[in-house]
């Protein structure tokens, strides 16, 4: 982690930075609203309930007018029970409609949220490793959690308030115009001022909202990184440094949030003040007409009620408009994840049936660079046929793991080709090719769940007996059986209940169970003892008879029987041949082998001396 995030670092960290124009993207919201339109039946019920609530609320002012007119005309003979019954009936209709409204809106929100998350997650799974190299886990978590929640609130509740508010304003507006069009126009004269205030505040609110969402993503990423690296942080006593970095981010979040909330706080009172001004105008002008006998008392009181309620939807929709300004930043980021184009084309899934196994892999003049500034691999040429084991060795940072990633098509060559069965593997369906691979990493991932299910992850339809056999070949059966619950033992989150060596054995068993045509072992036995390693190698001998295997190893004694050994130094294969051939060359491989052999001999001597002294 960096010492302290600078403002420039923070901006550059979030890939989807926003322009200074801060425009309201109507097409963006139309696309997102399509997730709600998918459930047209629910949306229709919600729309009807919202319209009923909005239109029925207009009747309170109308009943009030009729009641006052009746009392003014008939005195004690006024039919109060009739007006009371109408009020009760209107309240009952509103209550029933509200029940349906809340129920279906909540259901609609949950379904839209599910669909958005599903589509975003589906596209994330299509991405290559390059996509995840640029984006921290926390960055993605923020998109699928807080950003998604914010959007679904807008898409459902804002729509309902729009339907309710429109129905209420239209019904009241029509009645007001019919009763007294001059007084109605006086009330409506404030609307242009509210529109002007909305336009003035829109850009500033949106710009600060984008900064809030961007910083929130960075905070989530920083928090996730700190939690994942808690062991390292505590080991090097870096808690205060982590707190300093996290505090810097939260300070920026505080500043951005205060700016955003201040603008929103200014905007809402302006709208409410304009509504009060409108009420004052109606009261003063309508009062004069009442004193002059032009307007009845019931109509004046009804107008005052309507003006008050007429601007209530305006205030509510102004609130949602402010929320939309804020949520547009979330919308942009969610859609950015959903629209991210995979760097690797998966190809036609139906064409997978045309391929039958992997008989050869050829690497021809391959160059690769993670970025334009630095080339990692240069002019790599290599070939492996069925039954052959190719070992990749060399100093740390030479490019061994990168070459393995290219062979697995986690990345694709910058230039050159990798041929599978004499076809460029970019022309082969990705799903089919990956299904032929078995990959065991130096630091394998173990999922939460039982050991049995972790091994079965290699082939989900495998029987228990097949899982047991794979574990035996991998040398994992012994330690699993020694556990209290055997194969039903919970591995814990990320395999926290298992040692590093046990995780590697599970990963090897998982790869064996998959029965791959191509096996890639990246320091797969680095965390196990020599005896266990020899047991694993014996178990793999039968598996690899008609298959291709690529082995990355620093322990050279484990790869002496490889068909060919490629010594990789500074991104190039500088030596290639069998163990004996490379020793005869007496080059870099031979030098490394002699150094390791000498260290092993010294270590063995000390072990023997310790045992003798006992």
Task: Compile the SSE list and pairings.
Elements: H1 7-13, H2 26-37, H3 40-74, H4 80-126, H5 129-134, H6 137-179, H7 181-188, H8 191-228, H9 230-235, H10 239-291, H11 297-339, E1 360-368, E2 377-385, E3 389-393, H12 400-407, E4 415-420, E5 423-424, H13 430-435, E6 437-440, H14 451-456, H15 464-474, H16 477-482, H17 500-514, E7 518-522, H18 530-543, E8 548-552, E9 564-569, E10 572-577, H19 579-585, H20 588-613
Helix pairs in contact: 3-4, 3-6, 3-11, 4-6, 4-11, 6-7, 6-8, 6-11, 7-10, 8-10, 8-11, 10-11, 15-17
Question: In summary, what is this structure?
Answer:
The chain is α/β, with parallel strands linked by helices. 65% of the residues lie in helices and 9% in strands. It has helices at 7-13, 26-37, 40-74, 80-126, 129-134, 137-179, 181-188, 191-228, 230-235, 239-291, 297-339, 400-407, 430-435, 451-456, 464-474, 477-482, 500-514, 530-543, 579-585, 588-613; strands at 360-368, 377-385, 389-393, 415-420, 423-424, 437-440, 518-522, 548-552, 564-569, 572-577.
**Strands of the biggest beta sheet: in what spatial order?**
6-7-8-3-9-10
CATH topology of the largest domain: ABC transporter transmembrane region fold
CATH superfamily of the largest domain: ABC transporter type 1, transmembrane domain
What is the number of helices? Answer: 20
Which geometry do the CA atoms define?
A: elongated
How many domains make up the 3D coordinates?
Answer: 2
Radius of gyration: 35 Å
CATH architecture of the largest domain: Up-down Bundle
Helical residues, percent:
55-70%
């Amino acid at each position: 982690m960096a010492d302290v995030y600078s403002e420039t670092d923070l901006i550059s960290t979030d890939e989807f930075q926003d322009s200074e124009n801060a425009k309201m993207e109507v097409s963006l919201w139309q696309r997102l609203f399509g997730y709600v339109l998918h459930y047209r039946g629910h949306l229709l019920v919600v729309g009807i309930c919202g319209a009923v609530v909005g239109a029925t609320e207009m009747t309170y002012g109308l009943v009030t007018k009729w009641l006052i007119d009746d009392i003014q005309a008939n005195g004690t003979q006024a039919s109060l029970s009739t007006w009371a019954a109408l009020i009760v009936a209107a309240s009952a209709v509103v209550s029933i409609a509200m029940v349906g409204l809340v129920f279906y809106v909540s259901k609609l929100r949950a379904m839209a949220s599910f669909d958005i998350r599903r589509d975003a997650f589906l596209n994330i799974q299509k991405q290559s490793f390059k996509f995840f190299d640029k984006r921290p886990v926390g960055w993605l978590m923020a998109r699928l959690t807080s950003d998604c929640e914010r959007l679904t609130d807008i898409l459902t509740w804002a729509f309902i308030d729009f339907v309710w508010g429109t129905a209420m304003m239209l019904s009241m507006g029509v009645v007001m115009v019919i009763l007294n069009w001059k007084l109605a126009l006086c009330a409506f004269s404030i609307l242009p001022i509210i529109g002007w205030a909305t336009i003035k505040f829109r850009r500033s609110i949106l710009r600060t909202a984008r900064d809030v969402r961007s910083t929130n993503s960075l905070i989530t990423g920083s928090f996730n990184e700190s939690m994942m690296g808690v062991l390292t942080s505590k080991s090097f006593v870096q808690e205060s440094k982590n707190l300093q970095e996290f505090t810097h981010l939260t300070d920026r979040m505080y500043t951005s949030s205060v700016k955003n909330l201040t603008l929103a706080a200014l905007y809402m009172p302006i709208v409410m003040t304009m509504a009060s001004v409108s009420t004052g105008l109606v009261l003063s002008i309508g009062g004069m007409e009442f004193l002059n006998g032009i307007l009845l008392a019931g109509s004046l009181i009804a107008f005052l009620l309507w003006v008050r309620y007429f601007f209530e939807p305006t205030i509510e929709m102004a609130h949602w408009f402010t929320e939309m300004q804020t949520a547009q930043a979330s919308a942009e980021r969610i859609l950015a994840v959903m629209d991210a184009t995979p760097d690797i084309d998966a190809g036609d899934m139906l064409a997978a049936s045309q391929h039958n196994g992997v008989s050869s892999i050829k690497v021809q003049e391959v160059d690769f660079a993670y970025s334009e500034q630095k080339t990692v691999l240069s002019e790599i040429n290599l070939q492996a046929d069925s039954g052959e084991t190719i070992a990749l060795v060399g100093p740390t940072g030479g490019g061994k793991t990168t070459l393995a990633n290219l062979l697995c098509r986690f990345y694709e060559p910058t230039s050159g080709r990798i041929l599978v069965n004499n076809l460029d593997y970019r022309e082969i369906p990705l799903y089919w090719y990956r299904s032929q691979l078995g990959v065991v990493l130096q630091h394998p991932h173990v999922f939460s769940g039982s050991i049995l299910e972790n091994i079965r992850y290699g082939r989900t339809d495998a029987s228990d007996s097949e899982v047991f056999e794979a574990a035996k070949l991998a040398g994992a059966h012994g330690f699993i059986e020694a556990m209290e619950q055997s194969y039903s033992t919970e591995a814990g989150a990320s395999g926290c209940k298992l040692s590093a060596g046990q995780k590697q054995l599970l990963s090897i068993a998982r790869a064996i169970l998959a029965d791959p045509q191509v096996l890639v072992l990246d320091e797969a036995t680095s965390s196990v003892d020599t005896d266990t390693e020899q047991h694993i190698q014996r178990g793999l001998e039968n598996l690899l008879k008609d298959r291709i295997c690529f082995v990355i190893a620093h322990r050279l004694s484990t790869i002496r029987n490889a068909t060919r050994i490629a010594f990789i130094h500074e991104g190039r294969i500088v030596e290639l041949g069998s163990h004996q051939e490379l020793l005869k060359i007496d080059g870099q491989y031979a030098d490394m082998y002699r150094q390791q052999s000498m260290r092993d001999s010294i270590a063995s001597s000390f072990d023997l001396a310790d045992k003798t002294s006992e």
